[in-house]
Design goal:
It contains 9 helices and no strands. Helix 2 crosses helix 3 and helix 3 runs parallel beside helix 7. The protein is globular and about 50 Å long. The relative contact order is 0.14.
Length: 128
């Protein structure tokens, strides 16, 4: 608990600029950077008892971007089913994104935000 408080304090000292950078990396960085950014966001959500990160993701539109990108992930995951599949990066990226979305869904506010962002619609459009 002490480490979590200290980590939250350090991250909080950088303000929203740190979170903004991590969100940008998760949205449009390189694959490995995106995976790391999603994992970082997942850890931050776990530490964020006041759900300030959720509010940030919703207000800045990042949650909708992450949810809408599930359609693109679907195409990449389907490509992995071909006889000569691409590297597994698409799968690892999808897993890290879904870990974040699953963590967000564990709270009432997070689940409501995901529903408002259209997560069920996007998942129903997926064919993987």
């Amino acid at each position: 608990a002490r480490i979590a408080r200290e980590t939250a304090g350090i991250i909080g000292s950088y303000g929203n600029s740190f979170v903004e950078t991590v969100c940008r990396d998760a949205s449009d960085g390189h694959d490995v950077g995106r995976m790391l950014a999603f994992s970082t966001l997942d850890s931050l959500v776990q530490l964020d008892r006041n759900q300030q990160l959720l509010t940030f993701l919703v207000n800045k539109g990042y949650l909708r971007v992450f949810v809408d990108s599930l359609v693109r992930d679907d195409e990449l995951l389907q490509g992995m089913l071909s006889p000569s599949p691409q590297p597994l990066r698409a799968l690892y990226l999808y897993e890290s994104k879904m870990a974040l979305l699953s963590r967000l869904a564990q709270t009432l506010a997070g689940a409501q935000a995901l529903l408002q962002a259209g997560v069920l619609v996007r998942l129903s459009e997926c064919q993987f």
